[in-house]
Amino acid sequence: MKKTGLRAVNLLAGCALLLAACSPALNWRTTQLKDAPLQALLPCDAQTAARPIELGLGQVQLSVVGCEARGATYAVSHFAVAEPARAAEALTFWQQAVLAQLKSAGGVAARLNAKGDGPWVPKGVLNLPQSLRITFEGQGPSGQNVVGHGLWFARLEGSGARVYHAVIYADKLGPAEAEMFFSGLQLQ
Q1: Distance separating alpha carbons of residues 171 and 72, to the nearest angstrom
Q2: Buried residues in 75-100 as b, exposed as e (16+ CB within 10 A)
Q3: Model-level pTM?
Q4: CA distance linking residue 176 with residue 174, whole number of Å
């Protein structure tokens, strides 16, 4: 009787270990942005926020959806631009602002030229030179090393445009996670 109970406990423990080994490290789920026609694939429960910011074009209402998983921050942010002709300018300002946040020897984050970096213009996105995927590295506010996988693009929306930025901030390169995250962005 005692041997049967011990075997059952060992069997249950073995099954639990197998299930833990088979479970995904990140729990990817689709999130619909509430105020933009975009779905994002995030590895954790999303939080949302919105606030006005100054971004070289005057004040814009920035909306963000994101979460943290396994020490990395995943986020998608966006705002509307009244004049579509200014979408390229907005993307340039935004890229400069992100890269300037992470300091390096050159004063801004260093581009790493990782696999997949370069123009990013899927169907429905404005074909702008500023529609880019960039991997970069620098130092965070408390001096820690930060690697970023960033993506910037714009899309016509009504009589204006909406500009987007998807990013992962982590302490090391995560090319598989970046590929999953970026491939999960679906314009609607």
Answers
A1: 7
A2: bbbbbbbeebebbbbbbebbbeebbe
A3: 0.84
A4: 6
- Nearest-angstrom CA–CA distance, 172 and 146: 7
The answer to whether the Cα torsion of 79, 81, 87, 90 is positive or negative is negative
Q: What is the 3-state secondary structure (H, E, C) of 124-137?
A: CCCCCCCCEEEEEE
56 close to 79: Cβ distance less than 8 angstroms: no
pLDDT tens-digit readout, 68-126? 999 999 999 999 999 999 999 999 999 999 999 988 767 789 899 899 999 999 999 99
Q: Is residue 118 part of a domain?
A: yes
In angstroms, the Cα distances linking 30 to 39, 79, 182 are 7, 20, 12
Residue 139 lies in a domain: yes
Domain of 44, CATH number, reads 3.40.1000.10
Whether 124 is in a domain gets the answer: yes
Is the distance from CB of 39 to CB of 188 less than 8 angstroms?
A: yes
Contact between 142 and 171 (Cβ < 8 Å): no
Write out the residue range of the structural domain in which residue 164 sits. 26-187
* Cα 168 from Cα 166, distance rounded (Å): 7
In a domain, 13, yes or no: no
Report the domain count for the chain. 1
Burial class of residue 41 in the structure, from the number of CB atoms within 10 Å of its CB (0-12 exposed, 13-18 middle, 19+ buried): middle
